[in-house]
Amino acid sequence: MTFSLLTVAYWCVFVACGLPYLAAWAAKAGSFGPRDNEHPRDWAAKQSGWRARANSAQANSFEGLPFFIGAVVIAHQLGASQSRLDMLAVAYVVLRAIYIAVYIKGIGSVRSAVWALAFLVNVAILFLAR
């Protein structure tokens, strides 16, 4: 299998799988002081402010992945319009990247609105096939 066989939507799945790791990196980036590599979750649980929000964004991003992956695979299997599927998948990834950014910034109302939009895009992907 070559990379050229992957659709834009499948590439979006790949990118979406990386977003939680980006949020985790943000939570840990530039932190000074000891990090307990034996108990990293304990260290993360003691964080506050934007680091805690980045860690929460990581968790939420992992939680949202199964629905997105499933919706894209189902849409492909049911013969959805590829251009519409690609457009919606890109929209989902962009919204989730914005979600992580506003989550880290601590803008709760915008975060909730962006989460809802991404969820609705995911529902649209699921029901895209005829």
From TrEMBL:
One GO location term (cellular component): membrane
InterPro entries reported in the protein's UniProt record: MAPEG-like_dom_sf (IPR023352), Membr-assoc_MAPEG (IPR001129)
Signal peptide: none
Keywords, alphabetical: Membrane, Transmembrane, Transmembrane helix
Membrane-spanning ranges: 64-80, 87-104, 110-129
Keyword Transmembrane listed: yes
Principal subcellular localization: membrane
Pfam families to which the protein is assigned, alphabetical: MAPEG
Keyword presence, Membrane: yes
Subcellular localization(s) per the UniProt record: Membrane
The name this protein goes by in its record: Glutathione metabolism protein
Organism: Variovorax paradoxus
